[in-house]
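Lab meeting tomorrow. Look over both lines:
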Amino acid sequence: MKILAQPTLFIASILFSTLSISSFEVNANPSSDTQSLAMEKLSRALSRLDSERPVGGHIVVSFNDKQGEGKKLKEKSGQVTLTVQESINGLTTSYSKDIVENMKQESALLLENEEAPTPTIDAINDFSMTNINNLLSPVDSINRLLKFAKLTRVERVGSNMDGAQKLHFRLPMEAIITNKRTREYVDDFDGTMVITIDEHGTPLQLSSSYNGSGRAYVVFSVKAAGSRLQKFDVVGNRLVMTVREVFNSYDSTFGKGENSELHLFTPNVNDLTVENHFAKTSNDTSM
């Protein structure tokens, strides 16, 4: 064994090894080969599961929005359920008779009081066709994030026999803030993402978070933070998102606010294979 020429460096290397040994034993800080293999598995799975097979099911949308604080606090919340179905003719969305009736009643209330609560209308307005597409076809949005992301480490989940892994990434500003002009006003930004995959590379869960701050026109400053949780399942040979949970908050010169969204997608059982649904939904994807 070669002894380092400088005692200080020798002692530092021993301390580093001692402090890090438990981490290496638990997660075996991966080599570049391990990272490459994990990314290759994920990439192959995304290609394999990017099917155009029609899917359908029920979506539950709920949201909560708060602006201001104290006596100036304004809060809105709502929930709505809809049915979606793809076919060779496109995508069909439908609402129950109860939902349609609620919309009519809330519209009538707005004519009498413009500040009347409209939870059903607000929930529908908060949920766009882009949201539906992300639930039914999440591969594109995952690939977009991976385009910007930088893999930092790979972590084993459970025993070696399970084969599940967590891929840890750093996310740049461009991955979260898509508006170029907005990015010009951001001074500090930190973003992270973790994708959990099974032994075949199939995504089970994606979580991300960010913190940022900026200033515009001297008088306006803002701090913002947010997190996102997504869970996935497989319909036949197509990846779908079954859970999308988002939370954002801000603190600016003109006030504070926060908003949260929860989208739950339940695919039609007859669209799911026994192998890909009933086996996977019994797994714990809270890893």
In short: Confidence is low (pLDDT under 50) at residues 1-30, 272-287.
